[in-house]
Amino acid sequence: MKEQELKYLLKQVATLVCDYDRTTTNPDLTPSAEALQAIKEAKERLNLKFIMASGRPLGFFMQYGEVIAVADAIVAENGSIIYLPKSGVKRVIGEDVSSTLKALIEELKVPAELFEVIVSIPRSYEEAVKRAIEERGLRVDVE
Fold it and tell me: Residue 107 and which of 20, 78, 114, 135 are 20 to 30 A apart at CA?
């Protein structure tokens, strides 16, 4: 690709989206100052917005001011939470199903990590939880 073509294509891009883990991190999965600086420079030079995307819970990112400072938006919990750091606006998608699922998990007495929308359970409970979800007709993805 010629340099002129590349410049033209870059002008068509308005937003840069990156996954967090192993894309913008050090080997220990902490934010990479070098990666965040490169993103900041690209934002300024190309007039881009930057979205950090991750399966991690939003609370994880709140401990890293350097990520919050460079991100125009954070998409967390596999797309179920959208957070705009500069305004503090947060949109949660799937909250109603999540609260029903959390009640089911508690009823089944399954050990779990409960986030805003995502529920993480040990593999050994997966089949029992899937059966209970199916019996109740819940529309939930189990991964």
Answer: 78
